[in-house]
Structure to design on (96 residues):
């Protein structure tokens, strides 16, 4: 070992919410089921204030690298992707 070390932080399955209200065309196919699941159950399970506190604590540790794996968005709406980009920029320590 060469004595080089770094602090790695890892997050998984953030499922950023709430889901922006989709129009009918955006709910075609599997998205309709995903949206209903979000409304019925997942919205309550994915607490954005808790995720925010977790990220605040993570960033306070000043990691050298942050790995984000798993799902970031819920049903793949274009509006969700914009929210995910902003969230990832914050996770990377960038201002949007």
């Amino acid at each position: 070992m060469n004595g080089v070390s770094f602090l790695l932080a890892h997050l998984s399955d953030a499922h950023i919410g709430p889901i922006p209200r989709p129009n009918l065309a955006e709910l075609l196919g599997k998205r309709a089921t995903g949206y209903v699941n979000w409304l019925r159950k997942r919205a309550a399970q994915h607490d954005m204030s808790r995720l925010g506190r977790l990220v605040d604590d993570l960033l306070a540790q000043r990691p050298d690298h942050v790995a984000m794996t798993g799902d970031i968005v819920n049903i793949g709406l274009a509006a969700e992707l914009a929210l995910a980009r902003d969230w990832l920029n914050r996770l990377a320590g960038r201002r949007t």
In short: Strands lie at 8-12, 65-69. The helical segments are 30-45, 48-60, 78-91. Residues 30-45 form the longest helix (16 residues). The chain has a mean pLDDT of 90.
